[in-house]
Amino acid sequence: MPDMKVVVCAKQIPDPAAPPLIRPDTHTLDRTGKLILDDSDSYGVEMALQLAGGADDEVTLVSMAPNGETAGLRTALAMGATRAVLISDDALLGSDALGTAKVLAAAIRPIQPDLVIAATESTDGYTGTMPVQLAELLGLPSVTFAKGVAIDGSTVKVQRQTEAGYDDVECPLPAVVTVTAGVVEPRYPSFKGIMAARSKPIDVLTLADLGLAPADVGAAGARQEVTQVSEAEARTAGEIVEDDGEGAQRILAFLEQLKVI
Amino acid sequence: MDFEEDETHVAIAEAIRSLCAKFDDDYWASCEAEHRFPWDFYQLIAQGGWLGIAIPEQYGGGGRGISEAAIVLKEVAASGAGMNGCSAVHLTIFGLNPVVRFGNERLKSEFLPRAAAGDLHVAFGVTEPDAGTDTSRIATRAEPDGRGGYIVRGRKIWTTKALESQVVLLLVRTGGEGFKGLSLLLADLDPRYVDIRPIPKMGRNAVASCEVAYDDLPVEGWRLVGKEGEGWKYLLHGLNPERILLSAESIGIGEAALRRAVSYAKEREVFGRPIGANQAIAHPLAQAHVQLRAAWQLSRYAAWLYDHGRDCGEAANSAKFAAAEAGFFAADRAVQALGGMGYATEYHVERYFREARLQRIVPVSQEMTLNYVAQQVLGLPRSY
Predict the structure, then answer these.
(1) Engineered SS bond to A61: which of A84, A156, B298, B374, CB 3.0-4.6 Å?
(2) CB-based contact (8 Å) between B14 and chain A?
(3) A93 falls within a domain
(4) Architecture of B7-117 per CATH?
(5) A139: burial class by Cβ within 10 Å (0-12, 13-18, 19+)?
(6) What pLDDT was estimated at residue A216?
(7) pTM for this entry
(8) Do B8 and A195 touch (CB under 8 A)?
């Protein structure tokens, strides 16, 4: 039996460096191309590897993606995660955050983890609601916005990021914790890690394997619909001020007008 | 024919890309300007186990071949690190190949694991002031010390990384004239007997190339690689893979230059439209892309042949020639596309240009590469 079992919710997303493709029918991102590990999840993977780094510990990645895509999971396995569970099913197309939470909860429950780690939000969807929904479905407490995570016996101690600084929060395990990009510095996959990742198990599951009905998830079960997507307004040109000796005053006036000073 | 990309190769390229993203063009420009060895980059590459990628697993390496090493070096160069990044790691990745192939067990077990871990830097001492392309004239001598070892005296030039390295793979004369009198030693760069002076040069200034004087350097007998008189033969085994790796580096520099030029040509507006709309700008950049793609295919093919134990002389030399030309063309056209800004240090393409120029003279000149193809492939008579 492993000593410490940590699950990391790892999302695979279209490369943010490439121009985004929006499906005209669903107004959602086209995810049929190559997907990579969401950068914001690499912090969770690193945190999990640091918390569960013992020989008998286990870090399991849980992910939901179309087309059986595993490239992003291989990256996280190359960083050192033990194994991965991927839920891939055509009926999941159009899932909202709650639908995703239901699927991930069904996949995580049998693992009986000590800790579930997720990013505060994904880099492609940005709803930031999935982890707390997941916690509710699993019947676990949740702590969000962790900038520091430590395990002390059966308690997780979290430094919870706030606008002013951070709160020290304690919570009994098992629990769901969301981590910020400040929590740890993710390692780069090593050559040996990449080679080892090739033979690490990725279990690919369908809705039927999880005992979920297609009507509860995917577009059919979604309670949220994206009605319109529009381009962000282009930034307007700034004001250019020639400094005729009053430049400093003009800057002060401008900042005062913005109420920043 | 199967052009499906190998998943491991894709993963290696992505890993190196993400690691190199930590070191931007400004980092490399400052290493260049300050003549500073890129230690933090080197450490990260070492920690990832990339330096030992082509060293056998039994000695702590990755046990892969030239195909994978070429991918690593191309990605390093393409990140904008160029030859400053590649030369910092190239010799540790590949320099000990003669030891891997022909070295005695003690040499292998003593040095290969340290090279794979990255805490042993290796230099390569072959060229001499009076023996460049005509290596048979090597004059650095290793005389017997009477106890089974050697005393080395002589002068080498263009010994890259001599300042940072603990050991040097040294081509010395132990016998009579010609190639058969040459032997290979893995000698210590012991400052008591070795004087190292960097050679001021046009580019790639983060990694110095040096003039090295050996003044009665003692070398123990077990540091001889293989047998006496076989040194040149051992080096020959490494020539083709070295050409393949340098071709990958040239292509990487070309890609970095092309990326900058394309981005500039899209953004820079003259007469109310981006300059990339002008075919005089666009076509050379498209041509650079075509040439880099073609050279990379040649390079991959040559690496595949080498890793499968096939004769790769024609492919390796062709790849080296094509890649050096493609890389230089891309860098030159990038400078042209950026105009005056292409000449400014701030835009980085002038650094790529200076490094791409180097690739047409190392490890041998383009002319000598063509001599190989002319004589060995086309069967034309030898002129020298």
Answers:
(1) A84
(2) yes
(3) yes
(4) Orthogonal Bundle (1.10)
(5) exposed
(6) 84
(7) 0.88
(8) yes
